[in-house]
Every structure is written in structure tokens, then in C-alpha cells.
From TrEMBL:
It comes from the Eukaryota. InterPro entries: 7TM_chemorcpt. Coiled coil: none annotated. Its main location: membrane. The keyword Membrane applies. It is a multi-pass membrane protein. GO terms for biological process: chemosensory behavior; male courtship behavior; sensory perception of taste. It is found in: Cell membrane. This is Gustatory receptor. The chain crosses the membrane at residues 52-77, 109-128, 156-174, 186-208, 264-285, 291-309. Keywords: Cell membrane, Membrane, Receptor, Transmembrane, Transmembrane helix.
Amino acid sequence: MATQVSSPKDQTKDRQTLPTAECWEWSIRPLILWIRILGVDLPDEDYRHHRWWMYVYGGVCFSSHAISQCVILHFVLYEWKQVNNQDSGEFIYGTVTATWNWIVDFMNYAIYGVGIHFMLLTLIRLRWNRLKKTFQQFQIIFTEENYVRIRQISSFSVIYAILLILGLAVVNLIQQARQGASPRRIFITFMSTLSVIYPATALVAYTIHCYASSLAFELIQKQIELFQIELANDRDLSLFLQTVKRKYIAVCESVDAINHCFGWMLLLSTSFVFVANINSSFYLFSIEININDFAFLSFSLIHATQLFFSADRIRCKAKDFLQELLRLTCDEKFKEFQLKMKFVFLDMVRSIPQISASGYFNISKRLFPQLIGTTLTYFFILCQFQASEKNCNLTK
């Protein structure tokens, strides 16, 4: 059932069960603990006296991560120089095109992993307090049941991120072992895969906040549906409109906080997804089909789906809410209040929230066809380069 406007007694009961100021922090606590394990100390009152230990631990984690990725890139470029024998025409993957695709793929994952890790330690950490305070305003919309639901989603999301990266790492190790790769190359590939745990965790945090905002819109919409039933009890329409508008503004502020906190992460993540899909599709369909390349292509597509559709759910729920309010505005039962309701509706329409990548472009499911089109375009271009290169080698 929908969330109803609580009476003072109900609100007192809820606050005794879960302290109002801590409801949101409690619901995402599994995510916060996991991020701390990764060495990122997001602001929290309960852990203030342990901060300097977290600073040291976080610095060690980031230094180790950055150094390992630099070693990986050095190994990739060194192997390229060693194996690339210009006299014999032998390359790592048979052609220069395929070999450079392999190098760009490693560079893409390294830049993405270290970049998101750096953002977690700087931009996201510095902006986390504003995000947290904004979502604490959902106390006027959420019930205890909603907070419990978000806590469950937080727990499952952390498990999902861990299993996803471990699955990729295991598949990668099995494939490398089958190909008879050297222990050094197996270790380098394994570490490159593990570095994606930071972007996966950041994306999980972004997804949870997007879900909470879309859920808030859904609950407000249900309140409008309930209002028509309560009208028989002489419900004050003016008070109801003020309450709905106040809740709508709170949700819009939460979307603004998501943009402020995760905007640069979304920009880097979108760029990564486009490049990763091009690299993986070229591996899979033009070089040699194996389970490893299929796993990484699936990962990039799952990453893109999570990135695009989480943001689009907010927009869809906001539009559903406004459609329900418009239907109420046009109802003949409220003729005397239609002018006031029309002004409220127009104010809300002008401020429909949208997730964006730091203002450069909006994040929505409309990016998915662009991703497919861009991937196919560059895939055919790379195939043409490779085909012409093979023809030149045969001629020689």
C-alpha cells in the first residue's frame, strides 16, 4: 500500500523504532562498511575517532592500486615492444590493429579503476555529507518498511559487486591457464580485473541513491491516488498540495545531490563503457571467440545497463507522478481549486529532475542505442583496418 501522511502518534512510534536522523545512514550502512574495507573513509559521526587510521589505510590502498596499474601498463607496453618483431611481421594478436586494441583495453581499465578510486577519495568523499543530509529529508516520505527495504538492497548490492568481480577474475584465470600464459601475465591480468572493484562499488552506491529517489516519487504518486478516497472525509486540498509540493522539492533536491556527488564519476563511467564495448566486441567477433572475452563484454553491457537505466527510472517515475497530478487537476470534482492546482503542476513540470554527467549530457536509456551504434561503427572500422593489414602482409 501507499505511504500515508502520518499522524503525530505514528511519527512518534516510527522515531522510537528507528531514530529519524539515522534512518538513511542505517539503511546504507552495509555499503558504507564495504567502502571502508576498500580504504575509502566516507564521513560518518560514528567513526570520527578512527579517522587518522583510515587516512593511512586509504593512502596505502590507493598507492598500491595506482602502482599496480602503472606496472601493468609498463608490462603491456614492454611486451608489445618485445613481441612486436617488425622484421618477421609477427604481433601479439597477429596484426597491429588487434594488438593496439589489446593495449587500449588495458589502458581503459587502468584509467577507469584508478580514476574512480581517486574520485571516491576526493570528490565523492567531500560531497558525501551534502548527499547524506539531502536523503535524510526522506523522513517525510519513507516509512520504516522503506528503510528496511533499502538496507536489504544495499546488502545484496555489495554481494553482487563482490561476486561480479570475483566471477570475472576466475573466468580470466581459467582462460589464461588454458592458453598456457606465463605466471607473470596471469598475475597482471588478474590484478587488472580486481581494480574494477572500485568502479563497481561506486556504481552500486549511485544505483542505490537513484533507486531511493525513484521510490520516493512512486510513494508520492500513491499518496495522490489515496487523496481521492480521503476527499470524502473533507480533506483540506490546500494543505495536501503544500505537502505534495514540499515532498516533490525534497526528491528533486536529492537528484541534484546525486548529480553533484556522482557527476564526474558518471562522465568517466560512460566513456569507459563505450570504449570497453568496442574493445570487447572486436576481441569476441574478429579475433577468437572465447569465454573470457564474452565475460568482459557481458560485464561492460551490465555496467551500461546499470548506469543508464538507474537514472532513467527517476525520470520515468517523476513523469508518472506528474501525469497522476495532471489527472487530478482535470478532475471535475476540483473545479474551484483548478487554478491553484494548475500553478502547482506547472511549477513541478518546469523542474523535472534529470541525472547528468556533470552537465555535459543527460544519463538515460536513450544512450543505449547510441552505445550500440558507436560500437558497431568502430567495430567495422577496426575490421576494415585488420583486413587491409592482412592483405598487405599476404602481398609481401
